[in-house]
Design brief:
The protein is an alpha/beta fold. The protein folds into 2 domains: about 180 residues, Periplasmic binding protein-like II (D-Maltodextrin-Binding Protein, domain 2, 3-Layer(aba) Sandwich), CATH 3.40.190; about 140 residues, 3-Layer(aba) Sandwich (D-Maltodextrin-Binding Protein, domain 2), CATH 3.40.190. About 45% of the residues lie in helices and about 15% in strands. It has 16 helices and 11 strands. The termini are far apart. Bound molecules: pyridoxal-5'-phosphate (PLP). Pyridoxal-5'-phosphate binds next to helix 8 and strand 10.
C-alpha cells in the first residue's frame, strides 16, 4: 500500500514535470525595449545567474505600451525592461504596472529613484541618455554642406529629404524629441517647427535607433536619435559626427516596470532586483550600449555622452509622461505633422 502510494505520487510528479518543464525550473516573460544586441546578453546573464528561463520579445517603447494595454485582461508579460520613461509613466498611471519597492532602490542615483517615486513605485530608472542627432560627415563634405549644430539647422533646404527620425507613436525616442521641442519652444512654435521639419524628413521609422544606423550607411544625411545610439555607430567605425543641439535638448530616463497581473511575479521581482545591480548594468557597455547606468556603482562607459557636456532642458517627466498629455501630443502630431503634405 505504502509503496503504491509512493508510485502514484511519483507518477503524478513526473506527469507535472512533463506537462510544464519550464515551470519546474521557473520562467519569466520579458518585454525588452532596448536594442536586440543588448536584450539578448542581458537575458542570458539573468538565466545564468538564476536558472530561470526567459522568453523575451523586443519592441519599441510605444508599441510595448500598446501591447501591454491590449493584454490587460489577460497579461502575458511579466517585466517590461528598457525604453524611454514617458510610456512607463503612462502605463503606471493607467494601472497597467505593479507597485514594487526593490531593496536595491538604495543603490541608485537620485534621478532614477525620483522616477520611481513619481509613479508610486510602479516604474524605476535604469539608465539615462540625452537626445540629439548625428550626420554622415563624409557625405556632408562630399556635397559641401556646412555641418549642422542646432535644431534650427535641420530646416535648411539642403537637408530636404535628408533627415530621418522615428514615429513618436511607436518610438519612445521620437516621443522624447516631440516633447523636447514643445518644452524648448512652447507648443505653437514647436508644431510650426515640426511641420517645417516634416518637409525634410525622408522616413519615420518604427524604431528609435534606426536613423543612427541609416546615417552610418549614408542612407540619410541626418538622423535624430539619442546621442548614445549614434555613439554605437561611431565606435563601430562609421563616419558620423554627433550633435547635442545648440538650443538645448531633452533626455530620457530609461525605465523598467513589472506588468500588473504578472504570472511569474516572484521571478519578475528577482529580475527587477538583479537589473538594478551594478553587475547587470555593466552588461550594456559590453553590448555597445552607451547610456548612463542608474546604479551609482555601475561603471559609466568612457564612450557615453556626459550630461555635463550637453545643454539639457529641465524635462518635465510628470507632465509629458502623463496619459492625457502624451495622448494629446501624439494625436496632434498625427493630425498636423504626419498627415501634412511634403
Ligand atoms: N534602444 C536604446 C539603446 C535606447 O536607449 C532606447 C531608449 O530608451 C530605445 C532603444 C528605445 O527605442 P524606441 O525609440 O524604439 O522606443
Amino acid at each position: 500500500m505504502r509503496t503504491r502510494r509512493l508510485v502514484i505520487a511519483g507518477a503524478a510528479l513526473a506527469a507535472a514535470v512533463i506537462a510544464s518543464p519550464a515551470r519546474a525550473q521557473g520562467e519569466l516573460v520579458v518585454y525588452c525595449t532596448v536594442q536586440e544586441e543588448w536584450c539578448r546578453p542581458m537575458m542570458a546573464a539573468f538565466e545564468r545567474a538564476t536558472g530561470i528561463r526567459v522568453a523575451m520579445t523586443r519592441r519599441s517603447s510605444g508599441e510595448t505600451l500598446t501591447q501591454i494595454r491590449a493584454e490587460r485582461a489577460n497579461p502575458r508579460g511579466d517585466v517590461w525592461w528598457g525604453g524611454t520613461g514617458d510610456p512607463h509613466l503612462q502605463a503606471a498611471e493607467e494601472g497597467l504596472t505593479e507597485e514594487y519597492r526593490s531593496p536595491n532602490l538604495a543603490l541608485l542615483h537620485p534621478w532614477a529613484v525620483r522616477q520611481a517615486e513619481q509613479s508610486g513605485f510602479r516604474t524605476v530608472g535604469i539608465y539615462a541618455g540625452a537626445l540629439g542627432y548625428s550626420f554622415n560627415a563624409r557625405e556632408l563634405e562630399r556635397r559641401r554642406i556646412a555641418a549642422p549644430r542646432c535644431w534650427a539647422d535641420l530646416l535648411r533646404p539642403e537637408f530636404r529629404g535628408e533627415v530621418q527620425m522615428a514615429d513618436p507613436n511607436t518610438s519612445g525616442t521620437a516621443y522624447t524629441m516631440l516633447a523636447t521641442i514643445v518644452q524648448l519652444k512652447g507648443e505653437e512654435p514647436a508644431f510650426e517647427y515640426l511641420r517645417a521639419l516634416h518637409r525634410n524628413i525622408n522616413q519615420y521609422t518604427r524604431s528609435g535607433a534606426a536613423p543612427a544606423r541609416a546615417v552610418a550607411t549614408g542612407e540619410t544625411l541626418v538622423g535624430i536619435t539619442f546621442l548614445h545610439d549614434a555613439v554605437t555607430q561611431k565606435v563601430a567605425g562609421a563616419p558620423v559626427q554627433i550633435v547635442a543641439p545648440c538650443e538645448g535638448t531633452g533626455y530620457e530616463i530609461g525605465s523598467m516596470s513589472i506588468i500588473k497581473g504578472a504570472r511569474n511575479l516572484d521571478n519578475a521581482k528577482r529580475f527587477y532586483d538583479w537589473a538594478l545591480t551594478a553587475e547587470a548594468q555593466a552588461i550594456g557597455a559590453t553590448a555597445k550600449a552607451y547610456q548612463i547606468p542608474s546604479n551609482r556603482e555601475a561603471p559609466i562607459p568612457p564612450e557615453a555622452p556626459r550630461f555635463e557636456d550637453v545643454k539639457l532642458i529641465d524635462y518635465d517627466f510628470a507632465r509629458w509622461g502623463s496619459a492625457a498629455e502624451r495622448t494629446r501630443l501624439l494625436q496632434r502630431w498625427d493630425r498636423e505633422v504626419r498627415a501634412a503634405a511634403r
